[in-house]
Amino acid sequence: MDIVFGSQLIGLGFTIVTAIFFLVIRRQNIDKYRFRLEMIQKERVIAMEKGVPMPELPDYDNGHRPSRVMSTLLHPRWILGIGLILICGGIGTTIALHAVLDPELHMKWSMGLIPAFVGVGFVLHYLVTRKNDG
Asked: What is the pTM for the complete model shown?
């Protein structure tokens, strides 16, 4: 009973640490965006004080701009790559758990099928939604 509770605490701790990590990254992106807007505003104020024509107003887009990470994820074939990685990882996990000599781990060989079938789903999604070149 204690082992199960301990492993649940480890999973909960990992989830919390992961969430904090992504929140910190999001906060840093917001701070960078805010700093950029402040610099643009300072530049415009200095231009107005000197009587120089003001630089063109950039698109502010209310902070809803795609980040560099999202723009790479939106490549048409990213879902195919993730699917293939999951398939290979799932098959590798299945083979490794099936080949292990520990009877307790040997009984759990089918756990590797979960990521493999999720990967199959990603590949099927890619095949169904891709645009035909011809």
From this structure: 0.46
Any residues with CB less than 8 A from the CB of 90 and at least 6 apart, and which? 112, 113, 114, 115, 116, 117, 118, 119
Q: Which amino acid is at 82?
A: I
Separation of alpha carbons 132 and 134, rounded Å: 6
Give the pLDDT confidence of 100-125 residue by residue, as tens digits.
888 888 888 888 899 999 999 999 98
Q: Give the integer Cα–Cα distance in Å for 68 and 70.
A: 6
Residues 55 and 65: beta-carbon distance below 8 Å? no
Would you kindly state where each structural domain of the chain is located, as residue ranges? Answer: 1-62, 66-134
In this predicted structure, the answer to whether residue 134 has a pLDDT above a threshold of 50 is: no
Q: What separation in angstroms does the CA of 55 have from each of 3, 18, 41, 45, 47?
A: 64, 41, 10, 10, 8
User: Cα angle at 96 between 84 and 3, to 5 degrees?
Assistant: 110
CB 112 within 8 A of CB 88: no
Could you give the 3-state DSSP secondary structure of residue 40? Answer: helix
